[in-house]
Design brief:
Blueprint lengths: L2 E6 L4 H12 L6 E8 L2 E8 L2 H10 L6 E7 L14 E3 L2 E9 L2 H10 L9 H12 L4 H11 L2 E9 L5 E6 L4 E4 L4 E4 L11 E4 L4 E6 L2 E6 L4 E2 L4 E2 L4 H5 L6 H7 L1 H9 L3 E2 L4 E2 L12 E6 L1 H18 L3 E5 H4 L10 E7 L5 H12 L3 E6 L5 H5 L2 E4 L12 H21 L4 H12 L1 H9 L2 H11 L4 E6 L3 H16 L2 E6 L16 E5 L6 H13 L3 E7 L11 E5 L7 H19 L18
Parallel strand pairs: 18-19, 18-20, 20-21, 21-22, 23-24, 23-25, 25-26, 26-27
Antiparallel strand pairs: 1-4, 1-10, 2-3, 2-4, 5-6, 6-7, 7-8, 8-12, 9-10, 9-11, 11-15, 12-13, 13-14, 16-17
Helix pairs in contact: 3-4, 4-5, 8-13, 8-15, 9-13, 9-17, 15-19, 16-19, 17-19
The structure holds fructose -6-phosphate (F6R).
Fructose -6-phosphate (F6R) binds next to helix 9 and helix 17.
Length: 602
Amino acid sequence: MCGIVGYVGFRDAVDVLIEGLRRLEYRGYDSAGVAVRTGDGLRELKRAGKLKALAEALAQSPLSGTVGIGHTRWATHGPPTDENAHPHRSGKLAIVHNGIIENYLELKRALLEKGYTFTSDTDTEVLAHLIAEHYRGDLEAALRAALAEARGAYAVVAMHQDEDVLVAARTVSPLVVGLGEGENFLASDVPALLPYTRRVVFLEDGEMAVVRREGVEVKDLAGNPRPLRVTEVDWSLEQAEKGGFPHYMLKEIMEQPWVLENTLGGRLDEAAGEVRLELPLDPGAFERIHVVAAGTAFYAGWVGKYLIEKLARLPVEAEIASEYRYRDPVVDGKTLFIAVSQSGETIDTLEALREARNRGAATLGVINVKGSSITREADATLYIHAGPEIGVASTKAYLAMLAAMVMLAVWLGRARGTLDPAEARVLLHEMRKLPRLAEAVLSRREAVKRVAAKYHQATDFLFLGRNLHAPTAFEGALKLKEISYIHAEAYPAGEMKHGPIALIDEHLPVVVVSPRGPWYEKTRSNIQEVRARGGRVIAVATDGDEAIREHAEEVLYIPEVHPLLSPILAVIPLQLLAYETAVLLGRDVDQPRNLAKSVTVE
Ligand code: F6R
């Protein structure tokens, strides 16, 4: 995640930077730092921990100047230390960065050969040295040349001791320019700008901004001028912190393409057909796996079970954490115990992990929040890098967990020799498309809104799905019930005929998750069974599947993707359906009744 701020003008830059960072702290708070062009050259100050630690350090050693950059960090590469905090320096220049430079290791190798030395573990320091390597008295040209060599996601702002300018660029990660009189600003998000201006320019992917006191130029990455598209923002501060969205939940649903970039970023080695997870575990040492979690995280674990069994041919049990620890599970030194959790604090999951560890299992956390209890207690952690999730109903963390589960299954399959490199390459190639495909699903929100408008008065819903989409059905039902308070049940589609079919009548909306894949034909038969009994089918289907329209009242389409990856796309319309339904019913979407974000009681 990370928040970045830049200022060039007449005010004290440090005041502007600290105020801006305070408003961006929701984007991460592992460390914070500023760099300022002072009378005494470029100077920076940075501290691990929350912004408060930086503010205290600045009170002890003040910096003064009218041009500066600041950063608040959600750690990705390297732990949250002073050294890894941004800004990162290379000689007379400093940069702040949000995103992941995927080819940083390869760039670092080349820079080491040229004699650069590194003081942090970050990909950002690599970018700083790369810009310095290209610097010939023109910061804009140097940044452009460096970015031509870098691959990945970034919002970056650079400054140089000898130039009165900030140069910024973005691809994937957000960046906004704030326009003032005799001063201009940069920030990851609008709230940081609101105390000073409401006139902003949202930079688009592949754009750069050259920001001076007297004006701002926007260009593409080749240096061609682009028009300055000025937007007047008219947001309350609270709205603005939600990035202009009415609810955190919607913001978090809409940022899922970025989340997938972040989860997968730097981990897929397509050429080798390998996933690089750098886990201190021996994948050959296990005879069985237990995946344990609660709620939404459990459904991600359930998908993980099917994927690992298929690709790594290891027996996997997926279990709800609150059940696991009290049933005397069979665990030994040949067991890999995987805890899946957004917060890393869910007590049921943590206690289950302790139980398994005490019985000799190796333990792995698949976790979002850095430094949380499970990450401290597990032998290894695979971070999902979804950024702070504030809406109580989990959405973006679920997608990130699913992506992590695919990576884990490929990692185990490759290491154990059950997945050949050619097959892995096909899967990795498809995984790279996921952010773009998720974006395509989100662009179809209007279709979901129409479905919600039609069915939001229903008192019950049924959700069905087979195999990898049974968990999708359960997650869809959970989302709907927790934020709309409509009763919803989910079943593996094949189980319907063993009882739940009695529920079906002309009043019951039945959501059937049926994208193309090996289970498609069978699921379609289940749709026909529902139709034959008058049920109202809402199908989630693959683009081009016109035949399904014969049996479904409504179809929500998702793009074609490798069947093993389809749970990542198919859940998105269900998240939106729950959201739009809850909004129509006037529910408190971000803080549904009776729930809490992190459940630390049993
Ligand atoms: C549902 C939801 C909960 C959590 C569950 C586990 O939207 O948010 O079901 O998934 O409480 O939480 P974590 O992932 O923090 O362990």
